[in-house]
Amino acid sequence: MKIIVHIDEATQWQEALSQALPQATVLTSEAPAEERQQADYLAIWKAPAHLLQEQTQLKGIINLGAGVDYLLKTPGLPSDVPIVKLRDAGMGELMADYALYGVLHFYRSMDRYREQQQNASWQPQAVVEKSQWSVGVLGLGAIGGFVASALQQAGFQVLGWSRSPKQISGVHCFHGDGGLTELLGQVQSLITILPDTEATKHILNAERLAQLPKGASVINPGRGSLIDEQALLDALGNAEQPGHLRGALLDVFQEEPLPTNSPLWQHPNVIVTPHMAAPTPLNDAIDQVISYLHAFESGEKLSTVNPDAGY
Ligand code: NDP
């Protein structure tokens, strides 16, 4: 079995996979071209197109992350090779921390205290019960579902939304266009953990942002394409003319790194983080990749990426 690895820490991956699969040849994408050919599996994250194009007998592609948007747009991606992606693999917990931080920021009025501090203003803000603070989670997949449950267990009222109907204990689940409108109308904090697909592009446009209650906040650790950034800026308003929305915590952007001239950097009610919400924990991910390789080799049925749906 020949496996080619392409990711930033490729040497660590190469060592771990070689140790777990002593009979396999594990190479990084830095290996000479003639050695890279005729691989059985690619375990890759943001790989160059040539790595896919030069292969002739691939049995499977393992995407070393949860989002497959980059991979599905890579020229030369074979249409007949099954693709699997990391599912949770420790990212759910990191994402839940990020989401909880964002919800608490607005729920405990940290944004208002930051503003008050500019004027040395000592003014405690009222705190409602957590069960009275409703949080919407768009996307209830491996990571989004984990986040919805974690926020529910933290005491918040959680509403979730996905493409197909879902059941998550303690979470009010919606689906479909009608379900989205219903959810948006009643959440104080909205978290977007959807994949970047044709169907989710600008899912939060001006019209949908306006459906959120006045004073709602948006937390986006999903993908930049989910939000129309100009519509978000308009909905946030400015010092002279406050908008419909209270603030946003954003980890992902239409263009990354976020251009230095983006108004989002300077907006007083926006927190920008550099796509750091849920980096893949190496050990969990390696264990999952090893189990994928065993499953591929033994012909086990795997839940694969659906390129038509885009995730
Ligand atoms: P999954 O593929 O497991 O789940 C995707 C979820 O989105 C599913 O619930 C799916 O619905 C739902 N969905 C997809 N398309 C639509 C649609 N058109 N309408 C309604 N719901 C839809 O993904 P993960 O939970 O593992 O990850 C989600 C995303 O989080 C990734 O794609 C990635 O973009 C982002 N991410 C960001 C990171 C960061 O550091 N900022 C780190 C890791 C991930 P259904 O269940 O019905 O299929």
Shape: elongated
Query: What percent of residues adopt helix (DSSP H or I)?
Result: 25-40%
CATH topology of the largest domain: Rossmann fold
Query: Which blocks of ≥5 consecutive residues have pLDDT under 50?
Result: none
Percent of residues in β-strands = 15-25%
Write the layout of secondary structure elements.
Elements: E1 2-6, H1 10-20, E2 25-28, H2 33-36, E3 41-44, H3 49-53, E4 60-63, H4 69-72, E5 83-85, H5 91-107, H6 110-118, E6 134-138, H7 142-153, E7 157-162, E8 172-175, H8 176-184, E9 189-192, H9 206-211, E10 217-220, H10 229-236, E11 247-250, H11 263-266, E12 270-272, H12 282-297
Parallel strand pairs: 1-2, 1-3, 3-4, 4-5, 6-7, 6-9, 7-8, 9-10, 10-11, 11-12
Helix pairs in contact: 5-7
Organism: Vreelandella glaciei
Domain D-isomer specific 2-hydroxyacid dehydrogenase NAD-binding: 103-277
Protein name: Glyoxylate/hydroxypyruvate reductase A
Report on this model:
The chain is an alpha/beta fold. It folds into 2 domains: 2-87 and 280-298, NAD(P)-binding Rossmann-like Domain (Rossmann fold), CATH 3.40.50; 91-272, NAD(P)-binding Rossmann-like Domain (Rossmann fold, 3-Layer(aba) Sandwich), CATH 3.40.50.720. It has 12 helices and 12 strands. It has helices at 10-20, 33-36, 49-53, 69-72, 91-107, 110-118, 142-153, 176-184, 206-211, 229-236, 263-266, 282-297, and strands at residues 2-6, 25-28, 41-44, 60-63, 83-85, 134-138, 157-162, 172-175, 189-192, 217-220, 247-250, 270-272. Strand 9 (189-192), helix 9 (206-211) and strand 10 (217-220) form a beta-alpha-beta unit. The radius of gyration is 21 Å and the shape is elongated. The structure holds NADPH dihydro-nicotinamide-adenine-dinucleotide phosphate (NDP). NADPH dihydro-nicotinamide-adenine-dinucleotide phosphate (NDP) is lined by residues 66-67, 91, 139-144, 162-164, 193-197, 199-200, 221-223, 251-252, 275, 277-278, 311. NADPH dihydro-nicotinamide-adenine-dinucleotide phosphate binds at residues 66-67, 91, 139-144, 162-164, 193-197, 199-200, 221-223, 251-252, 275, 277-278, 311.
